[in-house]
Structures are given as structure tokens and as C-alpha cells.
Specification:
The chain is an alpha+beta fold. Helices cover 49% and strands 13% of the residues. The protein has 5 helices and 4 strands. The longest helix is centred in the first third of the chain and has 26 residues.
């Protein structure tokens, strides 16, 4: 009988300790691993409530990817438009470095068929306005013909000559004149 009583007391003590442990865990707000999900927040009386973090929805992920794509495209267009080509005095023939730049522009235009390009021909201040307008047009045409030979459709390009009217460098010296003898590029959507 004494043995039975000891066993019963031991079982009761074990159950009591187990109940106390479970009760104290319940007060602290512990969520068992079986029930918890990554988005749930564990709250204890001593800690402030933490916000529930929801994973982004498919629409939110798509919108974020589109924003990244647009930003990348904006940077690519800036690089494209900042790459001028330069000409020798009174010439409209393409230099080797101009051909290399145009090859990169052709690759970008092939990768982005939704865009067209306007090619501007510019000159330095020497010569008459009429002569410089004609020279600027020959320079723009030379760039366009090279792009056509690289596979860009002519209908995706437009040319304009500004002659000496839009100098990059307003000074009157060799350095300024060399900067002003250029072909400049502006990208725009085909739908314009």
C-alpha cells in the first residue's frame, strides 16, 4: 500500500510540475512550432507588439520589378544619348572611334526595338550658316547610313542639322571647335 501511495504521489507531482510549466509558458505567449507560421508575431506581456510582416504579393513583386526595369532603361538611355561622335574639320567621314560608338548604339537599338533615334549634325562656328547646315546634314546622314548598314531600319531614325547653332563649347579655339564638330543622339519611343 505504501508503494502504491508513493507511485500516486510521484505521478501527481509530475503532473503538477507539468501543469505549472505549461501554465507559465501559456502566460508568456509561446506558440508551439506546430502552430507558428513565419508571418505570426509572438507577443509577451513584457515586450511591445511587433508588426506582422507580410510577404509581398505577386502584384507588388511585379511592380517592384517593373520599377527596376524602368530605372535600368533610363540609365541605358542616358548612356546612349551621352555618346557623341566627332568629326574632323570640314569632314563628314566617320572616324574609327565613331564607328565603334555607332556599333554599340546599333546593338542597343536592336535590343530595344520600341525606340527610335534622332541624329543631330553639328559644326563649329567657322564657315557660313548655309555651309554649316549642309555639313551638319552630311554628318548626320553618315551616322544614319552606318547604322542602317548595321541592321537598324531607316524608318526608326530621323536626322536634323543644327549647323553651328548649338555649340557644346562657346569658345573660339581649336579645343572648342573639336567638341562642336559632332553627331549627337536623342532616343524616343517609336510611337511618337
Amino acid at each position: 500500500m505504501m508503494k502504491k501511495m508513493m507511485i500516486i504521489l510521484a505521478v501527481l507531482a509530475f503532473c503538477g510540475v507539468s501543469l505549472l510549466t505549461m501554465a507559465s509558458c501559456a502566460k508568456k505567449g509561446v506558440i508551439s512550432e506546430e502552430v507558428a507560421t513565419p508571418a505570426e508575431t509572438v507577443v509577451t506581456p513584457d515586450e511591445p507588439m511587433k508588426p506582422v510582416v507580410q510577404p509581398p504579393t505577386g502584384e507588388e513583386r511585379a511592380a517592384a520589378l517593373e520599377r527596376q526595369r524602368q530605372e535600368q532603361l533610363r540609365r541605358e538611355i542616358q548612356v546612349f544619348e551621352s555618346g557623341n561622335i566627332y568629326f574632323d574639320f570640314d569632314k563628314s567621314e566617320l572616324r574609327p572611334e565613331a564607328r565603334a560608338i555607332l556599333e554599340k548604339k546599333a546593338a542597343w537599338l536592336n535590343d530595344n526595338p520600341e525606340f527610335s533615334v534622332r541624329i543631330e549634325g553639328h559644326c563649329d562656328e567657322r564657315g557660313t550658316n548655309e555651309y554649316n547646315l549642309a555639313l551638319g546634314e552630311r554628318r548626320a546622314n553618315a551616322a544614319m547610313k552606318y547604322l542602317v548598314n548595321l541592321g537598324i531600319e531607316e524608318k526608326r531614325m530621323a536626322i536634323v542639322s543644327y549647323g553651328e547653332e548649338r555649340p557644346l563649347d562657346p569658345r573660339s579655339n581649336e579645343e572648342a571647335w573639336a567638341r562642336n564638330r559632332r553627331g549627337q543622339f536623342n532616343v524616343y519611343p517609336v510611337s511618337w
